[in-house]
Specification:
With about 120 residues, the protein is mostly beta strands. Helix content is about 5%, strand content about 60%.
Amino acid sequence: MIRKRLAKAEGQRKKFQAVFSRFGKKINYKGYSEETLLFVNITEIETKTVVADHLWFSLTKGFEKLELKEGTTVGFEARVKEYTKGYVNSKYRINNRKSDYKLSNPTKIQLVKEIG
């Protein structure tokens, strides 16, 4: 899903709110396993509009300080960036690359409300 509402704010740093869903893992560019966080219902605070249904973040020191449980709402500032996603295999002439948008460099991370 292309995040069209995020595309309008590319390059800008804004305040967001999101609901923590679960932890995950990915293999980073050095080949090591890295813990990740899935957030859902990402809302831009200023306009109160949902800009993405889900986003993944790396588990940074800012997120580590929080006791995250499913349903916890978190507030943070982040920069909107474009990135390329998809699969390429030149041998079989497969190129499924697409542009999409993400939030990067989250700072000022804080709990908004705790569930349960």
